[in-house]
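Same chain as my last thread, 446 residues:
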Amino acid sequence: MAQSTPGAVVSNIYKTPELWEKIVFTFLCLVVYRVGSHVTVPGVDVRAMADFFQTQGQGGGLLGLYDLFVGGNLSRSTVFALGIMPYISASIFVQIAGAVLPQVEKLQKDEEGRKKITQWTRYGTVVLAAVQAWGFAIFTESIQGAVVSPGFGFKLEMVTFLVTGAMFVMWLGEQITERGLGNGASLMIFFSIVEGFWPAIFQSFRFVSTQAVQPLALVFLAGLMLAVVAGVVAITLAARRIAIQIPQRTMTRGRMRESAKNFIPLRINSSGVMPIVFAQSLIVVPGAIAQFSGNERAREFSELFAPGTGLYFLLSAALILFFTYFYTSIIFNPVDIAENLKKQGGFIPGVKPGAKTAEYIDQVVSRITLPGAMFLTVIALLPVWLADMINVPFRFGGTSLLIVVGVALDTMAQMQQHLLLRKYDGFMKKGRVRFRGRNAAGGGGF
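reply #2:
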């Protein structure tokens, strides 16, 4: 096996044609995404928009939060101003429909049905993008000097460009997921957030130089960021093992010989970063629409849920807890696992195969999901609350780090699998990403 030096790992990536092609394809798609993020919509004064967001959005309002997920496209009024968020919102609605409506749930289990659901999601993306684009056009006209020629023609032009951009971004994300490396939607949000890290770092040092922020407060925030990263890595890799026994198909002296010990790894945070993304999407989209509508009462109502308010913290915590269980129930089906285990002749010691096994697995998942959900809630909201307490003029959100670290780990895990399949060393020690009590590369996993 190749040596585990950084140079050897990079060389192994290049020697793996399939992995290398996926990386290059993903990189090119992201380059296209970032290039399009600098093409502005005609008829908009970008300087006026930037000045507004600098004075109004710096506090971390709904617009600032949405702008964070789309990499500043909203404040620059680019054709990708809506980003991938309409697609994610449409996916949420479709997944909720699958959990509520048996007909949709049945379609999710069939290949042809999943194609229909994909089409519904695309149609929903168009509708949501059109509503958000119209609201953004109205909002843009309300900013003094931001629109050269306001009126119905400008609104129609804005909707056309933004909806087209949102659909193109959705298509890029699907191409990355199908032909590239990692989840396309997550990677786009990842690079949108990372793009703003360097300006934020330089801004932090300027705040220290002007004494707007005390050096001790900045050191405290830096330590908090490291703790958040360490906590995210730990909770992402943590897992609960359920021992199973699967008899082999070979006979030894007339008896069925048992295989070596195996186990089902149940991750404490099976849902990854998606509960945070879902929660923020639901908080941002309705509030953004209300704020873009131009109605004063609607704007006042939206401010009640602005980041930093009590209702924002309560609603975010409730949504994160809900979506953690909801998304886990979607991606993790104990009945299917129990059926597959039964077909292989396997069983959990002390538990009857079939329905009892599914019930046992569901109980374990429900118990270990609670601490994972609470961790996600704390790590997403606590940094924002602490930043308010020490009165820093910028917001440090655990949500951003949670998404960045989570997406990075998921992408590296996929690269790891490609390397290990070719018997190359991966990024981690001995070419394996280790969960607590299990080996992610296989090694006895189910």
